[in-house]
């Protein structure tokens, strides 16, 4: 009996030690105190305007300002005299971030074992998250949480999932603004690299997310906003 109790105590202590080792590994891999995303109250009003000519792709139309660009694999590319990239633009239709959040990270990581779909759906329901703006604000708040070895494993794994989700889906986000007016959407400004600027514009229509991506220094923010005002969805 005494031998059995000793073995039982050893097993319990080993299990507890393993539990804290796993928690500590998650914290070391995914917890980052230096994440500095900030919620935004900026609003940009974009009103529709007509254009003389359009380009069309995957049920979207936008003003054709790309006469001097080269079309390559769906990307409109503008080069300078030395054939260095000045601007690259593409557009496509996909699902909202909130649906990607529910679906999980298997698309990016086959070893995703953070939180299951039921838990992800519960996060959205319990926090009254109904659209991408609310999801973005929730994730930014969650990544500001103070976590340590005594935090619940669920909090740590949720943090790990959100951190990896942001890293894969909007990895370079620096700031964002909400679009209103004739369109519903989000403008995401990404961190500049090598003096190039990245801007992603998300427009929402019929439960789909239309993504317009700009990379380079040729178009100003005002020109991008003016261009987005020409977007037409095919069924309109």
Average the pLDDT over all residues and give the rounded result.
85
Rg calc? 23 Å
The best one-word shape is elongated
Q: Count every helix, treating DSSP H or I runs of 4 or more residues as helices.
A: 6
Q: What is the number of domains?
A: 1
Widest sheet, order of strands: 1-7-8-9-10-6-5-4
**Class of secondary structure makeup:** alpha+beta
Ends apart, CA distance between termini: 79 Å
| % residues in beta strands | 25-35%
Biggest sheet layout:
8 strands, mixed
The percent range for helix content is 25-40%
What's the helix and strand layout?
Blueprint: H1 2-30, E1 43-46, E2 54-57, E3 60-63, E4 70-72, E5 75-79, E6 85-94, H2 97-103, H3 117-126, H4 132-142, H5 153-169, E7 173-181, E8 185-193, E9 196-205, E10 208-216, H6 221-228, E11 232-233
Parallel strand pairs: 1-7
Antiparallel strand pairs: 2-3, 3-11, 4-5, 5-6, 6-10, 7-8, 8-9, 9-10
Helix pairs in contact: 1-5, 2-3
Features:
11 strands, 35% helix, 29% strand, 6 helices, 236 residues, 3-stranded antiparallel β-sheet, alpha+beta
Question: What would a concise description of this structure say?
Answer:
The chain has helices at residues 2-30, 97-103, 117-126, 132-142, 153-169, 221-228, and strands at residues 43-46, 54-57, 60-63, 70-72, 75-79, 85-94, 173-181, 185-193, 196-205, 208-216, 232-233.
Characterization of the model:
This protein has 236 residues and is an alpha+beta fold. It has one domain. Helix content is 35%, strand content 29%. The protein has helices at residues 2-30, 97-103, 117-126, 132-142, 153-169, 221-228; strands at 43-46, 54-57, 60-63, 70-72, 75-79, 85-94, 173-181, 185-193, 196-205, 208-216, 232-233. An eight-stranded mixed sheet has the order 1-7-8-9-10-6-5-4, with helices on one face. Strands 2-3-11 form a three-stranded antiparallel sheet, with no helix packed on it. It is elongated, with a radius of gyration of 23 Å. The model has no long low-confidence stretch (mean pLDDT 85).
């Amino acid at each position: 009996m005494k031998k059995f109790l000793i073995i039982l105590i050893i097993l319990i202590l080993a299990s507890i030690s393993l539990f804290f080792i796993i928690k500590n590994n998650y914290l070391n891999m995914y917890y980052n105190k230096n994440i500095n995303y900030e919620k935004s109250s900026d609003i940009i009003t974009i009103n529709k305007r007509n254009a003389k000519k359009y380009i069309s792709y995957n049920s979207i139309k936008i003003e054709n300002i790309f006469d001097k660009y080269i079309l390559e694999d769906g990307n409109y590319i503008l080069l300078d005299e030395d054939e260095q990239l000045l601007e690259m633009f593409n557009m496509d239709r996909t699902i909202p971030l909130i649906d990607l959040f529910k679906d999980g990270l298997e698309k990016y990581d086959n070893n995703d074992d953070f939180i299951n779909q039921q838990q992800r759906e519960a996060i959205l329901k319990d926090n009254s998250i109904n659209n991408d703006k609310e999801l973005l604000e929730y994730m930014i708040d969650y990544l500001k949480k103070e976590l340590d070895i005594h935090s619940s494993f669920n909090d740590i794994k949720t943090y790990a999932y959100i951190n990896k989700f942001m890293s894969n889906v909007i990895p370079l986000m620096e700031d964002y603004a909400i679009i209103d007016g004739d369109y519903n959407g989000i403008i995401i400004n990404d961190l500049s690299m090598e003096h190039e600027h990245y801007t992603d514009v998300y427009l929402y229509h019929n439960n789909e997310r239309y993504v317009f991506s700009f990379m380079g220094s040729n178009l100003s923010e005002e020109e991008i906003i003016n261009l987005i005002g020409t977007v037409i969805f095919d069924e309109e």
